[in-house]
Amino acid sequence: MSAEYIRLYPENPESHKLDQIVKVLEDGGVIIYPTDTVYGIGCDFSNSKAVQRVCQIKNTKPNSLSIICYDLSEISEYTKHLNTPVFKVMKKALPGPFTFILEANSNIPKTLNAKKKTVGIRVPDNNIPRELVRRLGKPIITTSIRDEDEVIEYSTDPELIYEKYENLVDIVIDGGYGGNVPSTVVDCSGDYFEVLREGLGDIEAYM
Is 206:92 a contact under the CB 8 Å cutoff? Predict the structure, then answer.
């Protein structure tokens, strides 16, 4: 069965459409959605079968996946104590185009942090994924939709994304054209900030 194609406006996403998408997530569905950087693919982070589907689609392992939280208070539910310098930077930088690598606590499903004690966490500056997380009541998985084209690297046109993934996922959300620069990945699990991938965000601006 083909995926549903749902158009939403990030400034004011329609409530009934968000509820429809959340129901699919609750039922173990996999969705493609916009962020403040590139389009992402994900599911309810606690549904191991859905996580495996995402991994099969992306040809990756669960412990390479990150999660989207609604805000800083939700991040604290899934991570060990944030030290003051890290908290201050994150408070200024989020919502924004960053993935912060943090020490995971026992609320993170074992499938996501097997053999490692950290988890990547995003709070994107886009109302669609954040509102989905808020209504779902828990994080969703996030991993980028990549393009086979080595020049483009990331797919930006939701209609073309739908053509490619319509038989692989349950819903494709059209939130307008996406970006083609991913988030900046910052490892905060040690004693200092380490940029693992330069992306759209400039962490130095918040230090």
Answer: yes
**Alpha-carbon separation of residue 174 from 5, 13, 28, 125, 178 (angstroms):** 7, 11, 20, 16, 9
Find the length of the chain: 207
- Could you name the CATH architecture of 4-197? Alpha-Beta Complex (3.90)
What per-residue confidence (pLDDT) applies to 114?
72
Task: List Cβ neighbours of 62 (8 Å cut-off, separation of 6 or more).
Answer: 51, 52, 55, 111, 112, 114
Let me know: does 109 contact 46? Beta carbons within 8 Å. Answer: yes
pLDDT digits (tens, 9 = 90+) for 146-162: 876 655 678 899 999 99
* Residue ranges of domains in the chain: 4-197
pLDDT digits (tens, 9 = 90+) for 96-131: 999 999 999 999 998 887 777 999 999 999 999 999
Question: What DSSP element (H or E) covers 4?
Answer: strand 4-7
